[in-house]
């Protein structure tokens, strides 16, 4: 396939960004159809794109003859329905994270993909394409840091709704850290503990922000994560990997350093799209290249499902105030 015709379900922030990136920065891809519950939003996403039509029914978009592959960027709770619709017509699909908000939904996708007999689902864990995380993974694989012992992570958003349910910090934000830990250390997470202290005065009701999460991997690596979604100063994702013979820190990439008024300063991006622009673009390029040659690329449905199991366990740990064990079923052969 030399030109992959793509349908996008959901043209909110992520879906519209994907349409733009595909149209401007990904060779061999054409957005041919979009669908959204908000018709104006769908129209805005494709304005100026001669080849893209708006389809009211997302299931009709998935089945359409002029759609070879689908991006699902609709509300989290609708991912399962649309991903399974793609599987039923054997079309490759890139689904935004989380694959599903519930473990049951994730299991059903795994069962459907196993039944389809080939990997068609990719999950939008774009950090796997971020140059900094890629460097970290390479350094670990080369052995120059020795065996991994710990990973300290910071995940801060400038702001979110003051009444965001605390579990959403885990399923919406923490899920990226879970994926990075599974991917870097090539292991499953078996136990999770969640602590919270005083909440930011920006949140209301029972919302807890920030949270402090501790993940334990099957291989004994400890991962701690601060999730703070109302830090107010910008979007800030960092981590430090501690190995037996060295450490490696992933900091905000610095575009330019400013020296003035006695200060050395650089900008903090306001949001994740600014921080992870390269990662999103590379993710889409790789996905399209994979579709063109019939290969699944990036995080698999199993990765999406396993990450959901961990964040759902974390939500339980937060609720009960006790550590939660993560027990995954046997990994089907399709994902080995
Ligand atoms: C958002 O939905 C994302 O996926 C971002 O990557 C993440 O960092 C942010 O916390 C989420 O709200």
What features would you describe in this structure?
It is globular, with a radius of gyration of 20 Å. The chain has a seven-stranded mixed sheet, sandwiched between helices. It has a seven-stranded mixed sheet with strand order 12-11-7-10-9-8-16. About 35% of the residues lie in helices and about 25% in strands. It is α/β, with parallel strands linked by helices and about 325 residues long. Strand 5 (about 95), helix 5 and strand 6 (about 120-125) form a beta-alpha-beta unit. The structure holds (2R,3S,4s,5R,6S)-2,3,4,5,6-pentahydroxycyclohexanone. (2R,3S,4s,5R,6S)-2,3,4,5,6-pentahydroxycyclohexanone binds near residues 172, 173 and 272. The site of (2R,3S,4s,5R,6S)-2,3,4,5,6-pentahydroxycyclohexanone has 5 residues, from helix 7.
Question: How would the blueprint of this fold be written?
Answer:
Layout: E1 4-9, H1 13-25, E2 29-35, H2 39-46, E3 53-54, H3 58-63, E4 69-72, H4 79-88, E5 93-95, H5 103-116, E6 121-123, H6 131-142, E7 148-156, H7 166-185, E8 189-195, E9 211-217, E10 222-228, E11 236-243, E12 247-250, E13 258-260, E14 263-265, H8 272-275, H9 277-292, E15 299-300, H10 301-320, E16 324-325
Parallel strand pairs: 1-2, 1-4, 2-3, 4-5, 5-6, 7-10
Antiparallel strand pairs: 6-15, 7-11, 8-9, 8-16, 9-10, 11-12, 13-14
Residues 157, 172-173, 176, 272 line the site of (2R,3S,4s,5R,6S)-2,3,4,5,6-pentahydroxycyclohexanone.
């Amino acid at each position: 396939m030399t030109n992959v015709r793509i349908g996008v379900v959901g043209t909110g922030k992520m879906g519209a960004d994907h349409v733009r990136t595909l149209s401007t920065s990904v060779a061999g891809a054409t957005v041919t159809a979009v669908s959204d519950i908000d018709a104006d939003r769908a129209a805005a996403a494709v304005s100026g794109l001669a080849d893209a039509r708006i389809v009211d029914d997302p299931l009709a978009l998935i089945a359409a003859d002029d759609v070879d592959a689908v991006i699902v960027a609709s509300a989290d709770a609708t991912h399962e329905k649309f991903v399974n619709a793609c599987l039923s017509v054997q079309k490759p699909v890139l689904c935004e994270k989380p694959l599903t908000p519930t473990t049951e939904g994730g299991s059903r996708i795994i069962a459907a993909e196993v039944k389809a007999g080939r990997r068609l689902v990719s999950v939008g864990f774009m950090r796997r394409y971020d140059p900094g995380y890629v460097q970290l993974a390479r350094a670990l694989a080369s052995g120059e840091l020795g065996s991994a012992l710990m990973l300290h992570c910071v995940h801060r958003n400038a702001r979110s709704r003051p009444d965001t349910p605390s579990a959403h910090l885990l399923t919406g934000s923490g899920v990226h850290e879970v994926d990075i830990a599974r991917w870097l250390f090539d292991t499953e997470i078996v136990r999770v503990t969640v602590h919270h202290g005083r909440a930011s005065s920006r949140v209301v009701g029972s919302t807890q922000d920030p949270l402090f999460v501790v993940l334990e991997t099957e291989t004994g690596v400890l991962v701690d994560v601060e999730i703070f979604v109302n830090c107010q100063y910008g979007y800030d994702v960092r981590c430090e990997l501690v190995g037996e013979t060295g450490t490696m820190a992933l900091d905000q990439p610095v575009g330019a350093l400013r020296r003035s008024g006695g200060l050395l300063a650089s900008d903090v991006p306001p949001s994740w799209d600014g921080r992870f622009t390269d990662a999103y673009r590379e993710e889409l390029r790789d996905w399209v290249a994979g579709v063109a040659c019939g290969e699944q690329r990036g995080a698999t449905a199993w990765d999406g499902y396993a990450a959901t199991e961990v964040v759902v366990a974390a939500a339980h740990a937060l609720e009960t105030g006790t550590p939660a064990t993560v027990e995954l079923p046997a990994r089907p052969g399709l994902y080995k």
